[in-house]
Amino acid sequence: MPILVFLLDTSASMNQRTYLGTTYLDVAKGAVEVFMKLRARDPASRGDRYMLVTFDDPPYGVKAGWKENHATFMCELKNLQASGLTTLGHALRTAFDLLNLNRLVSGIDNYGMGRNPFFLEPSVIITITDGNKLTHSSGVPDELHLPLNSPLAGSELTKEPFRWDQRLFALVLRLPGATAPENEQLGSVASDESAITQMCEVTGGRSYCVRTQRMLNQCLESLVQKVQSGVVLNFEKTGPDPPLICDDLNRPASSFGPQPWHSCHKLIYVRPNPKTGVPVGHWPLPESFWPDQNSPTLPPRSAHPVVRFSCADCEPMVIDKLPFDKYELEPSPLTQFILERKSPHMCWQVFVNSSGKQSDLGQPFGYLKASTTLTCVNLFVMPYNYPVLLPLLDDLFKVHKLKPNLKWRQAFEMYLNTMPPYYLLPLKKALRMMGAPNLIADTMDCGLSYSVISYLKKLSQQAKIESDRLIVSVGKKAPQETSIKVKNHSSSLSLAHLRDFKQLLHGITGEGPLRLCDINFKEFSGFQVALLNKAIKPQSYRNAYDIPRRNLLDQLTRMRSNLLRTSLKLIRGQDEDYLHSIPVAQMGNYQEFLKMMPSPLREIDPDQPKRLHTFGNPFKQDKKGMMIDEADEFVAGPQSKKRGISGDSSSGVTLKRRRSMSPLLRRPHVPPGNSNHVAPGKSLAGVQQNLLKPIPQHKGERKKNFCQHRDSSLSDQKKLRGFKTF
User: Fold this and answer.
1) What is the pLDDT of residue 493?
2) Same domain? 157 vs 59
3) Considering the entire predicted model, what is its pTM?
4) What are the pLDDT digits (tens) for 516-573?
5) What percent of the chain is predicted at pLDDT more than 90?
6) Is CB count within 10 Å lower at the N or C end of the chain?
7) Are 122 and 269 in a shared domain?
């Protein structure tokens, strides 16, 4: 399930116009929509999750997070406005913290227990910016700095703010404003020279320098292809180079000195299972330290593990029924060099420094090998120190027939002592699959101390609380500025020390050494920081001397708000109706209005049932359970068949209304000539006795009587529908 995070630049410089007639922010919004349409062509995009982050101050920069649906994402994207600073470093940190918060809850990083490539949340962060100078409230920095003091708990366990399955890509908009470029270059898009380019390369991504609309569409198609499930590794060569291979011209393919394939920072693809859609694996990558049960803390790990490969050719090892993991490497100078050697039957072993108990380089945990068809290079992950384990398992099945002797058990125990303890659980599972489940005792521990395990559990609980708090804060707007914001400085001056008006202006704007909160108001009681007085209508004074003395501070506050644009409700001072006008694009935005509404009050008496009738008598009872079919039958004397005449009082039978019975339960119609015919003078008891007598009828007579009974029942129902009750 890939996670796609769009980080949009909402600084004021995004309002500049391009040769297309739209602003940079409009181009960024359109790029997001085009990317989503291109991504929707892939059937694997059904599980994608989209998030939206801006350059606003945290926590207001997260517009769509983990719980927001697609409709909320599109609504927030449509309503973005460019009115801030270019705080790229803080925005990137907000995006990484948003992704890492869920990782602490799920424990997917598996700290201290090995790195599992098949436990991943592939994330792609797409930043769209104009590439201008970085600005901050404290100044204009020359380089991009990510704050390392994150408030997120557990961030100290990883040196970098990102993880190995999170990559950063940047679309740097360089569209001209006057005319379109004449000579548009086709082919690959070059990287940009802004500060974000280095950050993209560190995470395994890249940047694009976009100069035309056609180039933007090309970059979006390339980004869609970059959405892959995998993790980034650092491959570094150790030991001497392999023997030189010469081509037909006897020209060496490699020379002395550092080569590009010696160090590569590339992705390995983790393919999901086609049946379940989830990646499946068995063996982790070893940690860069030996776990100690007496250590109260864990050493911080790097985001991308450093995998060292030895160029000594050796034959690949594998035995029957032993599971292994196979990952394909992203095309790089390393894969190109291995494929040019044309040795599909040879492999290079891989190591992790300080993973062993005694050796600095550690023991091999897998190997790099070219495919048989020489189309790609694969990383095979095996058990730790597999050259020792595989011969032991081969002897166990072929020589000892699952009944090992003492010598074999001693060799196996020696191997277990040199293996990191977190490999015990996957090794038990593999031996169980192979048919030897009782070789490892259950008393062996994973290697982590009790304090470390308790700390990891506490981190998960704290992250769950922080995640709930972040989910609630998503979509909220920053409070609007209604008064003068004054910076805090260490010096303290009173108004009596002010020399001129320029010093006063510096004190109000916060640029000078004076701050208003340190002013001694007792020495000058008439000075105060005024709020906007809504009773005073905005006016455009041409002469400063026309402003009354009592309105000076209020007018100064309005002028500052109008000049610096510190509030969304701008004060123009030209038109009184401007305060009540909003753009047409904002007229249908009810989401912000609903967020500002207070929660409804509870009912006074929650046990009281709601009114079922809003019109007419409010005390009218609900008679849904008393509804009577309009084809009811009436049981009365023979005179009741006449319309509007009640039953005869002498007969003792009163008019009675009852529910309609099922046709199967009604008595059959008896012809007038039958002995069971009810005479006018007979009682009901006699009628019941006559009904209990058997009626001798032949087959043909029963069919004829049934048809007559059906026709008479239909006629009686038609008569009863026309009968009116009073």
Assistant:
1) 38
2) yes
3) 0.66
4) 444 444 444 444 444 555 555 555 556 777 788 888 888 888 777 777 765 555 455 5
5) 20
6) C
7) no
Strands 263-269 and 325-329: antiparallel
C-alpha atoms less than 13 angstroms from C-alpha of 531 in its C-beta half-sphere: 5
Distance, CA of 446 to CA of 421 (rounded, Å)? 5
Q: Which pLDDT belongs to residue 519?
A: 45
CA distance 306 to 361: 11
Q: Is residue 618 part of a domain?
A: no
Q: Would the pLDDT of 327 be above 90?
A: yes
Per DSSP (E only), the strands in 29-156 are 49-54, 62-64, 123-129
State whether 222 and 313 are in the same domain.
Answer: no
Residues 721 and 667 grouped into a single domain:
yes
Residue 138: which CATH number? 3.40.50.410
Tell me which residue of 574, 547, 578, 554 sits closest to 484, measured CA to CA.
554
**Residue 641 lies in domain:** 630-671+697-726
Residue 73 in domain: yes
For the residues 133-159, what does the mean pLDDT come to?
A: 74
> d(Cα 137, Cα 196) in Å, to the nearest integer?
19
| Per-residue confidence (pLDDT) for residue 317, from 0 to 100 | 85
Dihedral over Cα of 695, 696, 701, 702: its sign: positive
pLDDT digits (tens, 9 = 90+) for 334-384: 999 999 988 888 899 999 988 888 777 888 999 999 999 999 999 999 999
Could you tell me if 157 and 263 lie in one domain?
no
Residue 288 has φ and ψ, to the nearest 5°, of: -90, 25
Structural domain includes residue 273 = yes
Reduced to 3 states (helix: H, G, I; strand: E, B; else coil), residue 351 is strand
Name the nearest CA neighbour of 321 among 255, 390, 387.
390
Domain endpoint, select from 423, 447, 471: 447
E strand residue ranges, 111-249: 123-129, 166-173, 207-210, 230-238
Total number of domains in the chain? 3
- Say which DSSP state 522 is in: T
